[in-house]
Amino acid sequence: MAGFLSLSAGAFSVQAGTLCTVIADAATGKIIRQEGNCDSRVTPASTFKIPLSLMGFDAGFLANEHSPSRPFKKGYAAWIESWKQTTDPTSWMKNSVVWYSRLITEALGEARFRDYVRRFGYGNQDVSGNPGKNDGLTNSWLSSSLKISPLEQIAFLRKLVRQELSVSQQSYAMTGKLTALQDVAGWTIHGKTGAGPVRRADGSPEPGHSYGWFVGWMTKGDRTLLFARLIEDEKREAVSPGIRTRENFLREFPEIVRSSAL
After folding, report:
1. For residue 27, what are the β-bridge partners?
2. Per-residue pLDDT averaged across 2-26, rounded?
3. Partners of 180 in the β-ladder
4. Would you place residue 262 in the very low, low, confident or very high pLDDT band (cuts 50, 70, 90)?
5. pLDDT for 261
6. Of the four listed, 42, 72, 130, 181, which is most buried by Cβ atoms within 10 Å?
7. What local confidence, expressed as pLDDT, does residue 211 receive?
8. What is the rounded distance in angstroms from the CA atom of residue 112 to the CA atom of residue 250?
9. Under 8 Å between Cβ of 229 and 18
10. Sheet of 223-233: strands edge to edge?
């Protein structure tokens, strides 16, 4: 592929189970680094909160980083302790709160939700959900019908940072604010993790196997780079694969910068 840089031994520490790492220039679209299988589609899991943030702000359900604030209610998804509390857009993004995502999609409604995904050209654009369950509005991005490859993540993120998605300026600005993480090696990092079970062809989970994502963009001066990393765990680990993917990528980033002369 154009722009691919061959890597010397030890120049790029590949995490065990890494399926793909890809970095691209936002201005030109040129692939700067690519390793692994970056074409295969899997669940976006909580990385879908990036497009969902754009949708929520554009539609007016989300107002700013602290509004709307919604209380946790009995019956909401609560398999993580941090979800059992009042949540606003900032804590929603930080804690990956599934029930708050569902408030956004339910406010959008099926037709508008489907239209945003289509307009964004997001992955396979399939928001039908699990077969026979009519749950696309609340579950399609959670190891269900909606799937995206690492290279498609890059394509979507490029349209986001270039503001080519036909949403409001506030949507871009607030999504940038919600996804801001930290500065590493002089670059300001924006990103989102995601994790979800690997499913067999019949929809049942593959025991112990989970995907972990970290996707986003990084800026330094007038330059913006896009990145996506996807891993697959083959056994259950104590820490979420999404969190581990982010921490490993950020730890390796200074060496990535040095060896790629970014």
Report:
1. none
2. 59
3. 190
4. low
5. 65
6. 42
7. 97
8. 35
9. yes
10. 31-36, 18-25, 223-233, 205-220, 187-199, 180-184
* pLDDT per position as a tens digit, 184-207: 999 999 999 999 999 888 888 888
Rounded Cα distance, 164 and 161, in Å: 8
Q: Which of 8, 46, 82, 260 is catalytic?
A: 46
Residue type, 111: A
The answer to whether 6 and 155 are in contact (CB under 8 A) is no
Mean pLDDT of 35-46: 97
Element (H, E) at 155: helix 150-161
Token pair recorded at residue 179: 């996804």
E strand residue ranges, the chain = 18-25, 31-36, 180-184, 187-199, 205-220, 223-233
Q: What is the pTM of this model?
A: 0.92
Please state the length of the chain. Answer: 262
Q: What single-letter amino acid sits at 250?
A: L
Q: Check if the beta carbon of residue 128 is closer than 8 Å to that of residue 136.
A: yes
The residue-averaged pLDDT of 146-159 equals 98
Residue 232 exposed, middle or buried by CB count within 10 Å (0-12, 13-18, 19+):
middle
Q: What is the DSSP letter of 148?
A: B
Clarify whether 101 is annotated catalytic: no
Give residue for tokens 């909401």.
Answer: 76
- The single residue listed with the structure tokens 């976006």 is 44
Q: Which residues pair with 224 in a beta bridge?
A: 219
Q: In sequence order, what are the residues at sequence separation of 6 or more whose Cβ sits closer than 8 angstroms to the Cβ of residue 65?
A: 88, 89, 90, 174, 177, 178
Rounded Cα distance, 237 and 43, in Å: 19
Judge whether residue 122 has pLDDT over 80.
yes
Write the DSSP symbol of residue 31. E
